Each structure stands twice: as structure tokens, then as C-alpha cells.
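Good day; I would like, with your permission, to put a structural problem before you. The record follows directly beneath this note:
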Amino acid sequence: MLSENSNLLTINGGSSSIKFAMYEMAKDPTLIFSGSIDRIGMDNAIFNLTYENKVKESFDVYSPGFYEASIFLILWLKKQSGFDRVKCIGHRIVHGKNHKKAEIISNALIKELKQIKDYDPDHLPAEIEIIELFKSRYAGMLHVACFDTSFHITLPRIAKMLPIPRRFDKAGIQRYGFHGLSYAYLMEELKIKLGVEANGRVILAHLGNGASLAAVKDGKSIDTTMGFTPAGGCVMGTRSGDLDPGVAWYMMKREGLNTKKFNHLINHESGLLGISETSADMQDLLQKESSDERAAEAVALFCYQIKKWIGSFMSVLGGLDILVFSGGIGENAPIIRSRICKGLGFAGIVLDEDLNGLNETQISMEDSKVKVLVIPTNEELMIAKCTTDLYYGFKNKERQRKNK
């Protein structure tokens, strides 16, 4: 058994941020505090902290890169009460290729991640750097990799394939899917709320600055919008989503873009920001849409594409029983949920606009054939659960070896 009050840490490296949280380790981990370092690489990087009792702190921090941000976080954590009881650290890995579940981070795994870092240049290099720094400082702790791609390991072969020469498929160029930790958490919550109904035909819509949808049947992912990288699928805050390959070729030729500049264009200058020319934030765009046609078009395109993906996945699933909205937009923008679902009555999706406006958990009408729910996601808690399970298993194996 774990010693009393053993804790764990979760680290979630993004394209320009590090989210972190400390939990008391248990079958159901209890949050102690959480926080983030945002806008890494910019002049006004910010350190945010939230304690369990809701007391918040926020201050500027020098973070010109992930190395400096990680060092600051390491030094800050050392001063926190309870950090001396941390036994393991769970790291979110956005792209894990074909790893089926969370794994203990070994030198071999780090080497493998370095070999595929170009699969996701916006996340993997920074995540590897964070892991190596924390492992060097806390070598005695168990470090666990929790892969966003693992949830989608069940995708049928036909859903993974890309229509390009087979030599690329053999090299691992296929559709993987992302937001898996969020989807795994949402499915756990769905089973708690609806029981066996959660094993039906489900569409999960994780709608935030990064947005994707997943089609789930019998508890398994059978299709998803994001593909080889998190830049694919539906339009997002600053990511383009799917593009005609000819558009990519023409843009690179017209503006003389090299691969690095093109990657920056589709990941950081496109999406809602590119269309509106003002903001990637949905709340900002909603406030401006009545007076700014660009903002209105950005919002309209987002809703149109999500609606289109829902229809597409209904055909893959053979119908629909449950639609779940999550993520920053999915959880907090009733008007967006309403616009996405408008006109889908023929498919059995009918919202109760009063419940929707109140952000209730179930927002569909009683006679709606499809149940529509709003479920806040919690990737950090999912990382904590996966890490705890692996830690328990590792310690049990250690004891068994010693007792032989």
C-alpha cells in the first residue's frame, strides 16, 4: 500500500503552455492545487495557480522557452507543502503513435519519441524537453507517459488509412486522432451518468481552442476528426483543420513558404484567427459578430463544420444515441451549441433551449431521440488516474519480485 498522504504530479505540455496539478494519490485522486504557465516564449508569460479552496494567484514570469519555464516550475514546486510526498509524475504526451496505454517512461521510450518528434512539432519537442528536465531532477520518482492517441488505437484500419502511396503508410503516416485523455474521461463520466446507455452510439465533441470530435461505439473510438497531427479535422482557434492539398501547395509556392513557416501558418495564424483577422477566442468573436462580418463568418464556419462532422459520424455509427459537448467552447457557449444543433431535428437532436442556456448537464428535450449532454472535461484528472494505476501495478510487481 502507499504511505499515508502520498501525492502525485501531472504535467501537461502544450504548444505555448505547461499545465500542472498535484493530487493526493488514491483510487479517486483528490486535487490539491493546479496551475499553468501560459504564453511561453512571449514577453508576457503568466504563472497562474488555483488552490483547492479556490484562492488564485497570478503573476508574470520569465519564460522565453520551455527550458526556462520548466526550471521555474521545478524550483517553485520544491517550495510547496506536500511536494516532498510526490511519488510519481504523469506526463501528457500528445502523439504516442501506436501505444495502447500509459507506460513508464524509459530511455527507450524517450528515444522513440525523439524519432517521431516531427509528427507533432508543436507539442512533442517541448514535451520531451519537459520530461528530460523533470527526470533529471527527480530520478527517484516514477515517470509515466499518458498518450492522447491511445484512446483511438481501436480505430478500424479503414479509418486510419490515408489515400497516399503505401510506402508512407509503412512509415507510419496514417490517421491517429487526439484529445484521447479528454475522451477517456468523458466516457468514464458518461458511464457514471447513464450506465449501459454509454455503450451505445456516441459522438463526443471536444470544442475549445483545439477542437475535435470522436465517434464512439460500444465504448470504443471508431472515427475521429483529427488525423496524422492535431492540425487536421475541423476549424479551430488558430489551426486550419483539413485543407485541400492543392491549397497547401499553392500557398507555399505563392508566398515562398518553407516547411517551418507553413507549419506556423496552419497552426498559429489560421482557423478562427485567420478568418476573423482579430481573435481566436470564441467569446470575443461572438461579441463582435453583429458589427464585424469577419467575426460572424468565423463563428458561422465553426458551427457549420461541427454540424457537418456530426452528420458524417452519424453515418459511420449507423445513427446516434448520445451527443456530448465539452471543452472551453462546448462547455461554456450555449449559443454555439444551439447553432450547431439547429436543423438537426430530422436526426433526432432537439435541444431544450432553457436547459441549454443554463448550462445544465442534459440539455435535450425529454422527447429528443438523441440525448445531448454538457460534460466538463478533466484531462489532468485522467492523467492522475492513469498514473496512479500504473504506480500501484509497478509497486505490486516490485513486492512480488522481492518475495520470490
